[in-house]
UniProtKB/TrEMBL annotation:
It is a multi-pass membrane protein. GO terms for molecular function: symporter activity. This is Glutamate-aspartate carrier protein. It comes from Peptoniphilus indolicus. Coiled coil: none annotated.
Amino acid sequence: MVVETLTVSDFPEILSRKNMLAIIVFSIMLGLAVSKNGGKDSLVGKLLNNLNNVIMTIISFIMKLAPIGLGAYFANLVGEFGPELIGNYGRLLAVYYPLIIIYVVIFFPLYAYFAGGKIGVRRMSKNIIKPMVTSFATQSSVATLPVNKNACNNIGVSEDISDIILPLGCTMHMDGSVISSIFKIAFLFGIYGIPYTGIDVYAKSMMVAILSAFVLSGAPGGGLVGEMLIVSLFNFPPESFPIIATIGFLVDPAATMANASGDTIASMMVTRIVEGKNWIRKKDVASE
């Protein structure tokens, strides 16, 4: 399964939407090879850079009309499936949002306890609300950076650590997005009446969820690329893409809240590993 997912039997097949993971692997290898042979100043590097600019320009043209096309297509879906589709979205949200709340309420304190014991839990609870509200409202991990930075300072995390961990967390700490990817996959299985069972299905779901959330999060339009990856690897019909793209918009506030506010706790955990389990007490003594 892994070999079939990462490779193709014939090179022209790599350009098919059904083999997105293979083309990602090929792109990484090509990028490494170009960097070893002159990088962006080489002939191939300049060609790829110009080609990228051309493609991005074409995409910008398409994206100007995309909202109209997506709206028309979704209207057609609603007309075809009626209230059933809306009800499915409602049930998904009724499960996803409480699950994120449960995750935050249970696991954030556990992470904070590992990072700083009972004192860590108290300080986390006192300072985590603003990052949560900011990330939920802005739906942006980057916009939450200053608030997370202030929370880390109040908790006692060293600036040397928070200055590194918080920016990295914007593209690497994606637990809410991973959970939402699993929901998207399960949703499509349900829509098409496919049994969501089997170790291979679960393993593939986890792999795709992690890849789409972590690896592609830093890329422009990474969320949409991740959703295309889901459609491609599970061989869903192309019309599935707008369905899960809509899910992405609906769950993004809660997903971003879990992603971004968790960056502060990640900074606490790294501090505990780097400076020892008594780092909070040491900071308190040093500040007195």
